[in-house]
Amino acid sequence: MLMRPFMRCIPVALLLFVPCALGQVPPQDGGATAPQGGVSDPNKATPADNGPKWVTESTRSLEVPIGATDVVGKFAFVNPSDATVEFREMNASCACTSSTIRIGERTFVLIPKPKSLLQVVTTPEGEKRVPVASISVGPRESGEFELHLDMSGSTSKSVSLDVHTTDPASPMLHLTINALGQRVLIVEPEEVDLGIVEPRAKREFSVRVHSKVTKDFNIENNADLPPNVTATWEKTMVDGAATWTLHGVYTASDKRVAGAPEMDAVGVKFATDLSTEKQIVLRVVAKIGRPVEVAPSFLSLGQLRQGKARTESLRLHRTDGATLAVTSVKFENLSLPQQFVTATIKQDGAATTVEITIAENAPRGLLRGDIVIELDHPQVTEQRVLFNGFIR
Predict the structure, then answer these.
(1) Which of 113, 151, 224, 323 is deepest in the core (most CB within 10 A)?
(2) Distances (CA, A) of 324 to 316, 321, 351, 380
(3) CA 176 to CA 191: how far, in whole Å?
(4) CATH architecture group of domain 292-391
C-alpha cells in the first residue's frame, strides 16, 4: 500500500527533472522561457551584419589641399547596446595613419610605429601616456575616432582602421578614409561618352577646363591627339579667371561591326603652362556599331504568283537594348501602284516587326521599291530597306 503513492510521484519528479537537465528553467507566472546560456541580449543579431550600427558613416572622402601633409577624418560612434563593450584590437592598413579615440573625458591614441595603444592621463607632473590593452565603452556611451593621415610624398591615399570589439552584434568596425588630392585644373567632364557611333560617322564633343587655384593658365594647341580626333581650344576670361573650352570631333573607324557594338577608347593629352599640372588627359569613349539593326537588310521576294498574297517581315531593334518605336512606314520608288503594297507595324517587347504584304491582285511584272521606316530614335530617324521580286 505504501508503494502506490511513491510510484505516483515518479512521473511528477521526471517532469520537473527534464527541463532542469536541459538547462532550462520552467516559466513562472506566465513568463517566457529564457534561452539556454542566460538572459537574452536584445541587441544580439544573426548574422552580425544585421546588428545595431556603431557609426552612421563608415567611409569618408576628403579633398586634400595642395601642399597639405596631414589630413584628419573624424567618425562619431555610440555603443548601441546596454552592456559595456571592449575595443580589444585596432589595426590600421597603413603605417602613415595614427588615431585618437575620445570617449567622454578619456583620450586614447593608437601609434603605428611601434604599434601602441596608449591612454592620455593628466597627472600633477603633467600629461602622460600609459599603455593599455583595451578600451571600455559603457552602455549607450558615445565617442569619436579621429584618424590622421600623413600625406608626405602622396597626393591621394585610401586607408582604413579595423576595430575589433566584444559586441557580438558588431564584432568589427571598419572605417575608411579616401583622401583625394586637390586638382589644380578641373576638367568637365574628364571622360566623354559618345554612346553608339556608326562606322565612319563623326561625333562632336566639348570639354570645359577651369581652376579654383590658379586664375590664369594656358593650354597648348599642339596636343598629342589620336589620328581619329581633331580638337581646337577657345579661351575666355571672366573677372581675371580663365576658362578653356575644347571643341573636338571624333571619327569612328570604318570596320564593320555585326551584333553588339564594340568599345573604342582613346586618350587625348594636352600640355599646359603650369608647373603643378603640366598635362591634361582626357578620355573619349565610343561604342562602334549600328544604333539600330534591321534584318534582313535587303528583302528579296523571289517569284510571286498572281492571285496569292505574300507577306514578309522585317525585324528592327536598338543595339543598346532600349525599346525601339516605329512611327510610320512609307514606300518610295515603287514599280507598281501604292495600293498593292501595305505595311503593318507590330511591337514585340523592345523590338519592332514591320510586315510587308503584296496584294493577291498585284499586276504581273517586275516588283521593286524602297521601304522607308521612320523611327523615334535620337540618332537614327529612318531605316531604308530595298526589296524586289517578280509577279507571274
Answers:
(1) 151
(2) 8, 9, 6, 11
(3) 26
(4) Sandwich (2.60)
pLDDT digits (tens, 9 = 90+) for 103-118: 999 999 999 888 899 9
CATH 2.60.40.10 residue spans of the chain:
48-181, 186-288, 292-391
Q: Is 392 exposed, middle or buried (0-12, 13-18, 19+ CB in 10 A)?
A: exposed
Least confident of 32-46, 124-138, 250-264: 32-46
CATH number of 48-181: 2.60.40.10
Q: What pLDDT, on a 0 to 100 scale, did the predictor assign at position 256?
A: 56
Write down the pLDDT at residue 3.
Answer: 47
Amino acid at 272: T
Task: Give the amino acid at 255.
Answer: K
The string of DSSP codes covering 53-116 is PS-S--EEEEEEPTT--EEEEEEEEE--SSS-EEEEEEEESSTTEEEEEEETTEEEEEETTTTE
Model confidence at 16: pLDDT above 50: no
- Gap between the Cα atoms of 202 and 118, Å rounded: 64
Q: How far apart are CA 161 and CA 115, in angstroms?
A: 13
The CATH class that applies to domain 186-288 reads mainly beta
Rounded distance, CA 61 to CA 157, Å? 10
